[in-house]
Amino acid sequence: MLGASLSWLEMLRFITIVLVFKEYVVLALLVILSLLILGANDNTQIRAIRSYTVGAVGILQSALSVIPNVVQLKRENEVLHQLTVNLSDEVNRLREARLENLRLRAMLGLKEHATFTLAAAEVVGKSLHLLRNTITVNVGENDGVKPDMPIISESGLVGKIIVTSRQYSIGQLMLNKDFRASAKIQRSRVDGIIAWDGGDYLRLQNVSKTQDVKEGDVVTTSEYSGTFPRDIKIGFVSKTSEKPGNLFLDIDVIPSVDFPSLEQVFIITAVKDTERVAIEKKFIRTK
After folding, report:
1. Would the pTM count as exceeding 0.70?
2. How many Å apart are CA 207 and CA 241, to the nearest integer?
3. At 115, is the pLDDT very low, low, confident or very high (cuts 50, 70, 90)?
4. Domain 119-271 has CATH 2.40.10.340
5. Domain spans of the chain?
6. How far is Cα 180 from Cα 146, in angstroms, rounded to an integer?
7. What is the per-residue pLDDT across 7-62, written as a single tens digit (0 to 9) for each?
8. Average pLDDT estimate for 185-209
9. Which of 136, 134, 133, 161 is nearest to 146 (CA)?
10. Helix (H) or strand (E) run with residue 153 in it
11. Residue 132 CB: number of other CB atoms within 10 A?
12. Are 217 and 188 in contact (CB under 8 A)?
């Protein structure tokens, strides 16, 4: 009984819709009837009309095929975008691998030509904005590293070890107010002390005004140091100046090492001449 009532209501609703849109329904029926008549008629004129109609439809389809499929283009754009991201990441990885390879090749060349024993290390911590700047490296007492051992890179002198643990060490950079090293001008063999006063450059101190020092001169470690081997590059003379009443030159030195980009270093694990250190200490105590 309920099912019959629903069917009657649906039929009534359908009839109402047909009556509301009767003009469209009649038009649709007439169009369908016309197409059936045209399809069944084999008259020459009708065949010509069908032929022209098919041709027009074909031309219309060809024209519409030129219009891009928006959905397909969006999908292709997403695929290309993902491919671009992947390729960019791959390029970055390859660039980083190339730079690391160049650094390691340079360090390997340094190790091959060195006359002292070296321990390779990676910089795992760094401070460059203090008056007493340091680095932390991933080698320590287990690797034979001890305090006062020099730290170098393929570009030159970095600093020296000041604290060690079993697996890590802290190095004092040249950019540290407590750092001192005997140095010399490579060209003229003029001796001095390299230090840092917190400015943009290192300072070569204790060089008298009569000494031969020029801009661009290479500064290296000297043979007078009990800690650092001789002839390790420190940097280049940037500027020399004189102050009235001062017996010494003001000499600015640009470090050869780029400290902000420093990632790999070497620790010189065998440099000190123990006999020399012992006799110098004995002489200083008894003097």
Report:
1. no
2. 11
3. low
4. yes
5. 2-66, 70-113, 119-271
6. 18
7. 666 777 767 776 666 676 666 776 676 666 666 655 666 566 666 666 666 666 66
8. 94
9. 161
10. strand 150-153
11. 15
12. yes
